[in-house]
Design brief:
It is a single chain. By secondary structure, the chain is an all-alpha fold. It has one domain. A two-stranded antiparallel ribbon has the order 1-2. Helix 2 packs parallel to helix 4 and helix 7 crosses helix 8. The longest helix is centred in the C-terminal third of the chain and has 42 residues. It is elongated and about 85 Å long.
């Protein structure tokens, strides 16, 4: 077989579009977008999976001119970023809940650099986020992403991605759901903290010698940790359900 047959315009364009799709996916989806993974590793992974899945590509359905290819490349970038946004909104439920829990426990100032996102986050937030990430790894989230990328080649042809009204509606619903479910996860500790503040306020009125900072705060933090440990399994199950719902929507939409 001649080289001109293998590296013709259609095959080269299809390879570039598929590589663009994997690059956008690995830059946006959870686990693969981890800040500690070097960009060179992400690019190598995108190139490797492009070679692996290249043989299952259907023929291109777009014209091979500069304008059409430019629009197709932008569409592939948008596809990867859209999938990443949908999955990140589902994963950020635990991040939002962790921020609320940290605030109620008084740990808002106890922050450090989050190894996943590279930004400063409260310690409780990081703990819940990394624990949820470990659970998702155990549940093969990275395999789900690769399987979805494989199925998307047939369901969303290269250069054929378009934003729809259903997608915008789901993203708005997912953003609202992130706040609602995040508050639901943090509610036990939030309610307990408000109850403890009420009790401590009554004690300070009846017993002026009661020192809230010396006695009240350690009790509040200790009880909050007990509630956090008691609800941890349910919290991780909620995160897992949110990711499953996100993948179900992606499979149904695309």
């Amino acid at each position: 077989m001649e080289w001109t047959t293998i590296f013709n315009e259609g095959n080269s364009a299809a390879f570039i579009l598929l590589f663009t799709r994997f690059t956008a996916l690995f830059a946006a989806v959870p686990i693969f977008s981890h800040a500690n993974i070097p960009m060179s590793i992400k690019a190598a992974m995108a190139f490797f999976f492009t070679i692996v899945f290249y043989g299952s590509l259907p023929p291109l359905q777009i014209p091979l001119d500069a304008a059409s290819l430019t629009v197709a490349i932008l569409g592939e970038l948008l596809f990867g970023l859209t999938v990443g946004l949908v999955l990140q909104l589902a994963y950020n439920v635990i991040t939002f809940a962790g921020g609320q829990i940290s605030f109620m426990m008084g740990f808002s100032l106890a922050s450090a650099i989050d190894p996943q996102s590279g930004v400063s986050m409260p310690i409780i937030n990081q703990f819940l986020s990394l624990l949820a990430l470990m659970v998702l790894l155990i549940l093969d989230l990275h395999h789900w992403i690769l399987l979805y990328a494989s199925e998307s080649i047939a369901s969303v042809p290269l250069g054929g991605f378009m934003l729809t009204h259903e997608l915008f509606t789901y993203i708005m619903h997912a953003m609202l759901n992130m706040f609602v479910v995040g508050f639901m996860i943090a509610f036990p500790i939030t309610a307990l903290s408000m109850l403890a503040d009420t009790i401590f306020g009554m004690l300070m009125k009846s017993m002026p010698q009661f020192n809230l900072l010396v006695i009240g705060m350690p009790i509040k933090i200790g009880v909050s940790f007990l509630v956090l440990m008691a609800t941890l399994a349910a919290t991780l199950a909620i995160v897992n359900r949110q990711m499953e719902d996100a993948f179900y929507f992606l499979e149904k939409l695309f």
